[in-house]
Write a structure and sequence with these properties.
Blueprint: H1 2-11, H2 13-20, H3 27-39, E1 51-59, E2 66-70, H4 72-86, E3 90-99, E4 102-112, E5 126-138, E6 141-149, H5 151-161
Parallel strand pairs: 1-6
Antiparallel strand pairs: 1-2, 3-4, 4-5, 5-6
Helix pairs in contact: 1-2
Length: 162
């Protein structure tokens, strides 16, 4: 009886490989790993594990939208710049909603004003950044995202710190 169950695996080795292959990670798993390891500032160098070779980053601002194309290496540098500006910041996910290939995330980043954001002198004052992002995952990697940050809130915090 057992011999009959093994027959398809012997005759069709491709079927055996497909049956043993692990499923592709979900969009939620990809984004969660990216946030926990890369965007949190813990391991920016791991961006290559989560980002497509070219990622379209839609920067949604009141002044007008722009699109930046980032490589994993460029994104790692971007996070390292955050560490220079905010120091050892804390990163808290406040909302996380996944639907097929898209994931919505709202986060809070708390740090200190250690680097110049818009040409002003760093004050060392506490700074909080609130951001909402929708990520689109394709073939197990983040391929595109739409980001909105409370820039006015940052501006007001910087004014108060002066």
């Amino acid at each position: 009886m057992m011999r009959n169950l093994l027959l398809p695996l012997v005759l069709f080795p491709a079927f055996a490989q497909a049956a043993s292959a692990s499923p592709a990670p979900t969009a939620a798993a990809v984004v969660r790993g990216f946030l926990d390891e890369v965007r949190s500032g813990r391991a920016p160098e791991k961006a290559v594990n989560y980002l497509a070779p070219e990622v379209r980053a839609h920067q949604v601002t009141a002044e007008g939208e722009s699109v930046v194309v980032r490589s994993p290496e460029a994104y790692a540098r971007h996070v390292q710049e955050f560490r220079q500006l905010f120091g050892d910041f804390s990163f808290t996910i406040q909302e996380f909603i996944s639907d097929e290939d898209k994931v919505f995330v709202r986060w809070r980043q708390d740090g200190h004003h250690l680097g110049s954001l818009d040409g002003e002198t760093p004050t060392g004052a506490p700074l909080t950044e609130l951001t909402s992002v929708v990520y689109r995952v394709e073939a197990g990697k983040i391929a595109e995202y739409w980001l909105q940050t409370d820039r006015k809130g940052l501006e007001l915090q910087l004014q108060r710190a002066k």
